[in-house]
Design a protein that fits this description.
It is built from three helices and six strands; from the N terminus they run αββαββββα. It is α+β, with helices and mostly antiparallel strands. The longest helix is centred in the C-terminal third of the chain and has 28 residues.
């Protein structure tokens, strides 16, 4: 979560520069196309997977450790899913369908009603 927050803040942590803003842009941008087979394979940066949400990217770890950075929404979402086996069927409904999509819809609705 903290790493995601540093990247969301363009390389700073509590006002202290940790990495350069140019590195954040390079690392979180798509550099490699990946075969599209599901929502998790949208390209790859420097240790970050691109996400299907506009401008978003993820750091994935073993057994469902996922940190998703959503810059346009100003959000970082981190989960720990200590499951093994059919990872895609465990995490996709939990993370994508039940958490991120409703959260993104709520933030978009709030932004439109707040204007």
């Amino acid at each position: 979560l903290k790493l995601g927050q540093v990247y969301l803040n363009d390389g700073t942590w509590h006002g202290t520069r940790i990495v350069s803003e140019s590195w954040v842009k390079q690392a979180s941008g798509k550099h490699i196309d990946t075969p599209y087979s599901n929502i998790w394979t949208c390209g790859y940066g420097y240790q970050f997977w691109m996400s299907p949400y506009e401008g978003a990217y993820r750091a994935d770890g073993a057994y469902g450790q996922i940190t998703t950075v959503l810059p346009k929404q100003g959000l970082v979402v981190a989960i720990q899913c200590p499951e093994s086996g059919d990872f895609d069927n465990i995490v996709r409904p939990a993370l994508h369908e039940h958490l991120l999509l409703p959260l993104l819809h709520e933030r978009t609705t709030f932004a439109h009603t707040a204007v």
